[in-house]
Amino acid sequence: MSTEQPLNKMMIILSKSGLDSVYAAYVLANGARMEGIDCEIFFTFFGLDALHSKKMKKLHIATVGNPSMGMPTLVGGLPGMETLASNMMKKELEKMDIPEADEFLEILSASGVKLWACQLAMDMFHYKKEDMYEDMDEIITVGDFYEKANEANTQVIFI
Q1: Nearest CA to 38 among 48, 28, 46, 47?
Q2: What are phi and psi of 119, to 5 degrees?
Q3: Per the structure, how many domains does the chain have?
Q4: Residue 54, domain CATH
Q5: pLDDT over 50 at 1, yes or no
Q6: What digits encode the pLDDT tens for the residues 101-135?
Q7: Which end of the chain has fewer CB atoms surrounding its CB within 10 Å, N or C?
């Protein structure tokens, strides 16, 4: 018999707003909630765009400097390539019945995932609370994040 304690909480740090990063965080958060695990997402630096009410619907995938795209940087930088790649990814997600990022955020919030914005990043980008997703839980400091993560059987993931 295993003496390990079960995972109680997932703390996901989202630092980028590319579709690939945002969906990775959202799928992990959704999976945690489906398994009965508490989950919190800390949106920091460019990850704040996924929580910004005007930017969350305009997320895209980076084609330049992304080695997983399988194309030379020069090709990835051609006009329209980023839009093409983003639309292709969105179509594949739609085929799999995965909601768009803003709708996915609503589902996560409704399921109990806590959504935290980073105070430092908010200040750095001159964002206000009213700029953000209306069901965001709170704007917190890094120290607050560490305090929330300081529980037994908590896993922290950086994306």
Answers
A1: 28
A2: -60, -45
A3: 1
A4: 3.40.1260.10
A5: no
A6: 999 999 999 999 999 999 999 999 999 999 999 99
A7: N
The answer as to whether 79 is a domain residue is no
- Mean pLDDT of the chain, nearest integer: 91
Strands 138-140 and 154-158: unpaired
Q: Which of 39, 42, 54, 53 is nearest to 16 (CA)?
A: 42
What is the separation, in whole angstroms, between the first and last Cα of the chain? Answer: 33
Question: Are 29 and 159 a contacting pair, CB within 8 Å?
Answer: no
Residue 39 contacts residue 29 (beta carbons within 8 Å): yes
Cα–Cα distance measured from residue 107 to residue 99, given in angstroms and rounded to the nearest whole number: 9
